[in-house]
Every structure is written in C-alpha cells, then in structure tokens.
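Predict the 3D structure for this chain.
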Amino acid sequence: MPTQDAFAELVVSSWSDQDIADDRADFLQTHHRLACVSFGAARPSLGMSARQHVHAEPLHPLGDSSQEHWLVKAPAQELMGPGFSGRHNQDLLFGVIEVPEPAETLDGSPPLEQAARHAYTQLFEILDKNNFPYVWRSWNYMPAINQVTHGLERYRQFNAGRGQGFAKGARVMTNNVPAACALGVQGGPLSVAFLAGRTPALAIENPRQTSAYHYPRQYGAQSPTFSRASLARLHDQELLFLSGTASIVGHQTLHTGDVRRQTAETLANIEAVVAQTNLLARGARKFHLHDLQLRVYVRHAGDVDAIRSVLAAHLAPDQQSRFLHADICRSDLDVEIEGIAWREASSPSTD
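Done. Predicted structure below.
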C-alpha cells in the first residue's frame, strides 16, 4: 500500500472481504468503509450498502481479491432509496444506482436512453437533497455497449439519456464536468456509481485530445458528458480521478487492430493528462504515472499479455493494475485505462 496512506482521508484498497472481516490490516483501525466495488459474473454473498457489482471478469486478478474497498477516516452512514444504495460522511458520498432497461419504448426513446435518463435524474436529485452538489467521478457499466438497437448504437443511447439527466438536474454539460468512464459488460442492468463532494473538483482536459463534450456529430447527436480527469481536494489530500482513456488523438481512433500501439498511445494520453494536472495541483510532489492505481479494460481476453508487456515498460513493478474483460465504448478500440491517485497537498508545488 502506498506510503501516503498514513495521512489519506480516502484510500482505495484491493483487500478482500475476508481481509476486512478479519481486520487483518492495522490501517483499518483508523479508517471506515465508504464503498465496495466487486467484479465478475457472480455477485458476492456479503452484502453492504454502496456496493457496485461490475459484470466484468478479472484477467490476471490482483492477488486473491476481486474487490476494491473505498476507505475513509470519518465514519460513514447508509443512505438508501429505490434502486439506490449509498454511504456518506461529512465530506463524501459514494452512491450506486442500478436501473433495468424497460421492456418497451414507452416515450419513443430506446430503453437504454430511458434507463440512463432515469439514473442521472435520480443521481442529481439525491445529491441536491443531501447537499452534495458536485460529482467528482462516475463509473457507468451496461451490456452490449456497441450493439445497434432501435436504429442507434447503445453507447449513443446512453449518452443521450445521460445528457438529458444532466440537463434536468441543471448541471453544466461542457467545461467543468465530472471524470467518467462507460464500458460494456457481460450482464446486469445499467449500473452507475458516483463519488460526490461538497466542493467542486477541477476538470482536467488533454491537449492531445478534443474534449469529449465537443466531439463532432459523427459520434452522436449528444456528445459524451465527461472530462478527461478531475482533481479534487479533501482536507490535506489531493485526489486525481483519471477517466477512461484510450487510443484517441484529437477525436479520432488511432492504431485500429494493433493493441500494442493502442496501449502505447493510451499511455501517452495518460502522461499528458497527468502533466496537465500538475499545472493545477498544489502538492509539494507532482503526480506521476506510477502513482495511479489502474483498471485496465481489455476487449479481447487473449490480448491481455500483449497489453501487460507494453505497460510493464512504463509502470512501477509493484503498481496496482486490475485487468478486466470488457467492451470499450468505440468498437475500434481494444483497450481502455482509468485510474485514481492520491497524495498530500499541504503546500504549493515547487519542482
């Protein structure tokens, strides 16, 4: 576990449920669970509020754990509602909304668009009611993301519904929008998890890429509503949330069919986002690629060794990287990487 955990207000750990239950880690004596994320086809038997279950099979799992636990210093309490499960303390709220797609297109819009609109409308209603107005990061998972139904690719359906939810919640849809990802998984309803705070995060864009919310209409009538990363400050901690990042330069996919070159281009984009983050960060030490705890989404399971070999040349030997079998939001993309990093932010950067 990184050394900065000694002071961290928020920590993301890959301990298993059994580790948590046995209280094996001394760190748990001073921290409390905010949320849990589990992976794979089977739902864990141990239930808890604010658990997102991602129907994506781990590839080369990190240790014995198929779960992440999100830990905070201040105790968190449950917040429940129809289709919603969350936990919060005085600073943070982590919520999970699951919305089955309706069987019929009741208002003429595709079922996934309706589900996404419902999820994001509910999300902002929850945040407004509980005085957590700012979404820092969201994670969106849905089956068959690249499939065309009702005359429209399902990712475009999701973007339309998400955009409608942002508009109904009176949120901006360009510039200072949350970090996010959207992946295709093997089953389940639309699952949206989010981390929100009482203060805004800073949206980070990538000079190598067109901002997603400014994509031309060839990618859909409603552009995706997310920033390339967000930088949040929580007491003496700075938190970097890297959105799902892929082999896109400008707005175009590069290296179609070559997973190694796509992985290298993705890393170049991540490095560019980290560099932009360091222009705004206050910490005495700058963020680095090695600070990121990564989720790596792999379209074709057989590509995982090739992706790992490219990453090995750039990542630290002990860097936490979880590989998951999932579909990327564009059918010509074979790998996507997201991450989170945290560090002390007590003084302005001088290096």
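Residues 89 and 167 are 27 Å apart (CA to CA).
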